[in-house]
Amino acid sequence: MGLDGGTAGGRFLDAAIGLLERLRDDEAETITAAGELIADTVVAGGRLFAFGAGHSSLAAQDLVYRAGGLALMNLLAVPGAVGVDVMPATLGSALERVDGLATAVLDSSPLRAGDLLVVISLSGRNALPVEMASHARELGVKVIGVTSVAYATETTSRHSSGTFLKDHCDLVLDSKIAVGDAELTLDTIPAPFAPASTVVTSAILQSVMATAAASLADRGVEPPLLRSGNVDGGLDWNDRVMREYGDRIFYLR
């Protein structure tokens, strides 16, 4: 028996589908532009990086060393802020609010002018993503931000500049997620529940990467895609891609 719109599970899926349909219609031009910018970077010899803190890191990690994804996408990690494995888990949230941390990470990272960085932050209000984007651009790095623009009008910035992630990007992809990131309510439950930001953000970024791959092919460039290591020939294919592009792949070192 399937889920229907009358169940909590069915209502969540309906909400997620509605958000994805809205993104398809409202963000189509920006998704295309982001994919083209990534393709431009690949053709020009630049390197690709993705960053997200806490649960936003899930969408960043989904782009890295991914079957069907571009082999050139590297995870930019901030120690203690990548996921919920740090103890206590609340430390990761606290690190997002520390001024100066992003600058220290970027200045010791391999990023250089001509590269591209995807910065993912649902709220876009904390110091870490704001500074990550602003300092990356100071270094000559192109920045694609993925955030919910609604936070910029309904909350206040936690960065000393008073700005949000969206204010420091070459392109901004608006996830349309409502402030609070919970799609459902019930009279019997005192708090809203069922977050959709991971589903939506991952879908946005995979649509961008699909656009980039198609754009590269249109230019006569074979997209440096990885294949699943669980299909025959996949490992040999990946070895070839990684040898060819090894100078731009940092998760192998």
From TrEMBL:
Organism: Streptomyces gottesmaniae
Lineage: Bacteria, Bacillati, Actinomycetota, Actinomycetes, Kitasatosporales
Entry-linked InterPro entries: RpiR-like_SIS (IPR035472), SIS_dom (IPR001347), SIS_dom_sf (IPR046348), SIS_GmhA/DiaA_subfam (IPR050099), UPF0309 (IPR022951)
Domain SIS, first and last residues per copy: 38-222
Top-level division of the source organism's lineage: Bacteria
Name recorded for this polypeptide: UPF0309 protein RM704_33225
Family note: Belongs to the UPF0309 family.
NCBIfam families in the cross-refs: PRK02947.1
UniProt xrefs under Pfam families: SIS_2
